[in-house]
Structure formats: structure tokens, C-alpha cells
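I hope you will forgive my troubling you with a question about protein structure. Here, with my thanks, is the record as I have it:
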Amino acid sequence: MTKTLKGLMVSCLAVGSLSFHFHPPMAFKRAGSSATSLSSLSSTPQLSVEQIAALGDSETETANASEEKISVLVCPAQFCVPADYISLLNNLKVLESTGILTRPIGSFKVAPLPRTEWIKVARQLPTKAFLEARLPVVETLGWYFDAIDNAMAQIIAEQGSSTRICIIGHSIGGWVARAYLGGLSQSSTAIHKLAVKRVTSLITIGTPHISPIDAFVDQTRGLLRAIAEAPSCQPQALADRGIDVTCVCSDGLGGRVSTNVEELIAIASYLPLLGRLGGTGDGIVPMDLAFMDEPARRVVVTACEQTKLAIRHAHIVPTPWNLIDGYAPSFKLPEEKYPSYISPGVLGQWAKHIS
């Protein structure tokens, strides 16, 4: 791969690391096949909302057995699709077989968002709230919250009302999940009320949690600041509800002026976010912004234990231009050259906190 192509691919990640989002269709269209069936990642629930809500009052053998398992819900990064996280499931299964995970995996779901939904950001561009960097959370992220509800419903339908749920938020998905758990979706549905009671852990990987006032530009146009300042989204508030919070970030890539393409991309991302030169991070998100306050746990991952290479922000390059099939997999980067948070040799450094 040429340096020019590699730079272009990483630039796509930089553009998509922080942005805004809109209402998706609730019916999930399956993409192609893989080692793990996509139907195991995201599918339309077979039960009605009322039937799933009724599970909250039932005690079945399935529900009781699910208490020993941990189900996983992935909130994807911008322009990422469910197919992009098949490798995460497969690698988690390997860790489960080796005993690294504290509990066996129950259901594994990805919030069903086709890349086409992210294009609707244009709806916010001409608004006064966008220009003044004070976008309202629920109106802007409501479509993403609905997708989380949909995935939650699938998990509860499969595992019962007593299942434990861990949310893994990748990049922007981490602070959207934080807002969801903090009640900023303003949802009053039975699904939401039951689901948030079953979440026992939140893990964010490569997620910015701080919107500094000295940043050159507020790329989230007020969304991240509103979430970070909401009392219900504070790490202590989440901990008081029994949610164990872990923030994961890499410090492997510095942002500096050099001939290295990745370092140039890193400085192009870090500079507007930090408002200054320097910093280290995963090439897109600088470490200075990637952690919540205590009691949230901080996990710094520097290098892949297998390849000894620095850990990148993502394992794929999103393809937002592919509008023909919104669920087609993104361009996958070779793990042996570009290890990410979900690669073998990296995943085990933080997956032990899935609880």
C-alpha cells in the first residue's frame, strides 16, 4: 500500500471520528456472509415491544441461566456497520475459550445502523443551533438511540430479562452510549427502562469524553459538551447505578510534524481538538480527551502484544461513498500491520473488564 493511499484511508477515519447522526430505519437488512453470521450481530426482534417488556416480570429458566452470561452490545463508530465488528465477536470467543473473560458471552449485537443514515448530517448544517455549537442531544441523536433500543430488545428477547449487558462504544459510539445510559434519549419506552437496568458495564474505546473550551473548533457542535456536563452522565452517577465504566485509549501515535503519514494525520486530528501542538493517542483521538473522571477506570494500551506495533483508532476504513449497499462491510486494514483496539494481542488488555 502506498503512503498516499494509506494517508487517504486514515484521513477518512479522521473526518469520521466526531460528527452527528440521524434517524435509522428499524428493519435490519442483512449484509453478506462471513465466519460469523451477520444475523447473530443484528436482526429484527421476533417479539413485539409489549412481549419483550413483559419479560421484566417473568422468571424463566432461560433468564436465570443468562444471569451467568454477559451479553454485548456494540455502539459503532461513524460510518461503521455491523459487519465491521464480526472480528470483535470472533476474537472475544477466543478469549472466552482461554478463560480471560470473566463470564461467557451471551448475545452479541451491534446497533443496526447503515452508513447511509450518517449522510443525513446535512439536516443540521443550516440550523442556528449548529452554527452556535449547541445542538440538542435528543433531536440530533434520536435515530442512534432508537438503534440502541432495537439492539437491546434483541438481546432481551434472546437472553431473557435477567441477562447482564455490557455496552462497548467505539469512537463516537462511546459518548452516544454514555448519553443513552444517562437518560438523555428521554425515552420512556418499556424497552429502554428495562434495558438500562440490565447494563452492568460500559467500555469506551478510542472515545473522546472531553470537549475543551480552548479547542480550535467544536467538531460535535455542542453535543459532547452537553453530554459531558449532564449530571446523569457523570461517571459517579453511572457507578451509583451499578455500571462499571472503563475508558480505553492508545498512546502509541504522537502528533508531530514529520515525514511519517500517520503522524501527520495524528497532528491534523489532535491540533483542532486540543488547541495546541503535541499529544499522543490512537492517531485520531488524543489521550488527553479519552478518559472520564474517577471512578471510571483508565486503561492505556500502547502496543499490540503480538506485533509490538502501535495501536490505531480503528480496524477498518469506512466507505461513506458506498450508498448502494448501506450494510456492506468497510475496507478492512490488515491486523499484522495496523493493529487496533479489537485485534488479537490488544483485545485481551481491556476485555477482562467486560462484566
Q: What stands out?
A: Strands lie at 70-75, 105-110, 164-170, 199-205, 244-250, 253-254, 280-281, 297-301, 316-317, 331-332. The two ends are 39 Å apart (CA to CA). Residues 21 and 119 are 8 Å apart (CA to CA).
